[in-house]
Write a structure and sequence with these properties.
With 132 residues, this protein is of the alpha/beta class. The chain is built from five helices and five strands, in the order βββαβααβαα. The radius of gyration is 16 Å and the shape is globular.
Amino acid sequence: MQHFHAVIWIDHLEARVFHLGLSGLNEVILHPHLPTRHIHHKANSIGSGHVHESGEFLKQVLDAVSDAGEILILGPSGAKVELAKYIREHNPQIGDRIVAVEAADHPSDPQIIAHAKLHFKIGIPRAAADRA
């Protein structure tokens, strides 16, 4: 079954994946096998201050959105960018379906869904969607 829209909220501890389509809404929550720890920046150090995401964790997220026609990725830090890069490198066909990568701190599930509906213009009357 293909869902047309997927929104992912990801940080270094979990990924929440929501599929929005004509058949309704479903959610998948994924956690890395060994959650990464945040590393504090030190003066004159090189790097982002975060351990890179587990490849297996990112693959699970990729698999969870493989049937989506359009993908929106949200998150508070570099994890969203790492995920977008991973998807584009490991499956360019799915990577082409990423429509946006946006910052979002720690929204609730209803806030994520509302943001996705606004972004994808779901549930908005056609005339209003054309103006948005």
